[in-house]
Amino acid sequence: MLPLPAPGESMPLPNRSWYRHLYLQVLVAIFAGVTLGHFYPETGAAMKPLGDAFIKLVKMIIAPVIFLTIVTGIAGMRDLGSVGRVAAKAFGYFLFFSTFALIVGLIVANVIRPGAGMDIDPATLDASKVAVYAAKAHETSLVGFLMAMIPETILSAMVQDNILQVLFVSILFGVSLAMVGDRVAGVLDLLNQVSVVVFKLVALLMKAAPIGAFGAMAFTIGAYGVGTLANLALLVGTFYLTSFLFVFGVLGIVARLCGFSIVRLVGYLKTELLLVLGTSSSESALPALIEKMERAGCPKTIVGLVVPTGYSFNLDGTNIYMTLAALFIAQATGVHLSLGEQLLLLGVAMLSSKGAAGVTGAGFITLAATLSIVPSVPVAGMALILGVDRFMSECRSLTNFIGNAVATVVITRWEGALDRERFDAALRGEMPRVDALEPAAVAP
User: Which residue, 164, 230, 290, 310, could crosslink 314 as a Cys pair with Cβ 3.0–4.6 Å?
Assistant: First the structure.
């Protein structure tokens, strides 16, 4: 662990040139990407491989990061009762707030009614554009969920793009290691040492973050154009406003009740949030979030359980999007949903949002699955929002990311395990900067 200052003293920031801060580099890269995409759209669209390559680099390391974090976290607890208690609190928290996010989206859609007055005939929509998402919708069923969670082999879980499988194998391995105990203490020590190397690799990969953010943002603006937002500006604006109110209203109240400021937490994670904004993927900052939460005084044993599982089961932004988008489509196509049908929609969304946890493109696919079970709303209506879904995916990812950061702190505090002095120092900016450029701290 990093040494704490003496009482009454603060830890000054290290002497680092301003241009070497990762958050500034990413911010400049995003601005450059928007500029290039707007003024030279063809060139901007051609930058897509840069963003895709960076996301592939990060995804390459996600499986080992999750495996090592969860296994060493569970094995480090030794007391499996503690593991079960933390897991129960985490899933209880996830279930409550993800359901609450669905309800918020439903209420806002009924109040603002962003799709009202469009009077679009579903028969005129090109359903082929959403066929690929509808085809994958069966994967969000309960059976599909269970089958997606179990890998073919232990090793295959580490090489496939499926977080659920990695979680499943990691939890089983960690529990087994804890049950064996001191007889395999050397294995736990080895995994802890490997963690140091893996997080150093993460630090090296993060040096390419500005390039990835530049390419992804240049492509988005170049391919879709800023003017694309004009047609569905009310939907996009409503979604951003709702997400903002959820983060700084709902999660802000939760944070205040737990004794910390959501604004300061967002400030502490600004580098990672800019990375998520630039790449439209919260996964791109998953390793960095694990590192930053540990450095802010949350034990590795809790971070290792809460953060990876939260990435699959605590998707507040995605849930707000689902009910809001579903009602937008109903309103735009002139479909009136009774209270009972809206409650059915809510219930289906609660189940499908969990079932799509391991499915690529979960947000849009889950929406397709939900609409396919509620036949009164035409699935073809998804074509209406396909053009602006990319812009909303950035907000979904940001909200999901912040929601998981808050969940980690809250559950750590519930466990009475939060190092309050270190946490407060980190949020005040008095700890040494630990942007993703630097290796992770490892608890002794």
Answer: 310
